[in-house]
Amino acid sequence: MSLPTTEPTTGLPASDFVVFGGTGDLALRKLLPALYHREREHQLPEGTRIIGGSRSELDDHGYRLVVREALQTHVAPGDLEAEAVGRLLDRIHHLTLDAETPDDWHLLHGLLKERPDPERVRVFYLAVSPALFGPICERLEQVGVVEPSSRVVMEKPIGTDLDSARRVNDAVGRVFDEAQIFRIDHYLGKESVQNLLVTRFANTFLEPLWSSHWVDHVQITVAETLGVGERGGYYDHAGALRDMVQNHLLQLLCLVAMEPPTYVGRETVRDEKLKVLQALKPMTAEDVDRDTVRGAYGQGVVDGAVVPSYAEDLGHAGSSTETFVALKAEVQNWRWAGVPFYLRTGKRMDRRVSEIVVVFKEPPHAMFPHASGPTTANRLHIQVQPEEGMRLHMTAKEPGPGGIRLRPVSLDLSYATAFSERSPDAYERLIMDTIRGNPTLFMRRDEVEAAWTWVEPILQRWAETPDRRPKTYPAGTSGPTAAAMLLERDGRTWQEHA
């Protein structure tokens, strides 16, 4: 089910991997290190070229120096091999291009046409602002470099609401067919997220329990200890709901709740995820008021250091943008009706963690009335980051004579200890899947628009109630107290240390 990380390159065509925004943070921090690791594993086909496009006045040599420095900064020293670095740098070129002017785009045409092999794959990675997605695609079409084997990769956010998402999709769709468009969500490339599918569908013991009959509720948390940093300008126009919930958290929810596909293939998984999004109970104004919480971090202490508030990070007060969201959702279908899904994400939290916790119902009958010790509900805890793994929490008898003493225990699977291989970064897998033309782990247009359709009533209700500003929570905590109350009124609590 999960593609092997060291799949040989036999049969893979050479490719031209063009990164627009080639000197930006995403390219230097994630994409080029990911390409380096695939080069180190000899996965990049012979003849593959990496072309950075940006407005920087760099020639090939200057760009290679920038890339070398990025690798030294963002690749673990023990993973840096001079020979592999050299091979990667030999593949690298740079072109100075501006998406909004036609100047010099003929240079890209000339570079790509140097190798007219019809089997060569062209990947155009848009590591730029979504406002440039359409203009860049139009330039690519105008200079005649879009071929049937070409692919375009779009980073989130895809729009800021349903209407803008459709405009972005329309602009890119005028140049590329849907089968050529790869909308990336790096969470779907993480080993633990993919292993969720394997755990569910390659093992028989869970499937009979994976429904409202035995699951009490599901919690999905993506928490960060960092503030907005240099992204304050972008973030204040986006907020946590657009930045995290509409894509990452809803995608994780889909993988938990989806029905078993006929097989794990190119469209079957995406078909089932779409059904989950379409089954989400629509949010009325009353639902939004009752079942959503938004917050903004204030001053506090994170990792022993005093950190500023969101307003101080922005440099001005009066923002109504949320840095924290907690909400309650329901999937209205035969399997999940009545099971609440609690989603939570925030910045400047007490810990950095991405996790899914499936909490099962209590046993229907107390079989050990005279036992001592606590009984707790079984929980399947899926750790997405920073440490990837799974823990199944159970109740066991404590060893010893005499009466029965109960104690919570866990069955642990840590990828770091269970497997000797290095766990690849999500971008490594997603880049290679793009070259292979495998869209399984990418979002389809109808998925993106279904997610915006569900989120949009929340945004509209928040905009209609400006007096209900985000609740302040101290940095270094688990969020506003209203988020705890969201579960407590249902007789539940967040699994803070699951």
TrEMBL record:
Keywords carried by this UniProt record: Carbohydrate metabolism, Glucose metabolism, NADP, Oxidoreductase
PROSITE patterns attached to this UniProt entry: G6P_DEHYDROGENASE
Catalytic activities: D-glucose 6-phosphate + NADP(+) = 6-phospho-D-glucono-1,5-lactone + NADPH + H(+)
Enzyme class: oxidoreductase
GO biological process: glucose metabolic process; pentose-phosphate shunt, oxidative branch
Residue stretches making up the Glucose-6-phosphate dehydrogenase C-terminal domain: 197-495
Name listed for the protein in its UniProt record: Glucose-6-phosphate 1-dehydrogenase
Organism: Nocardioides gansuensis
Organism lineage: Bacteria, Bacillati, Actinomycetota, Actinomycetes, Propionibacteriales
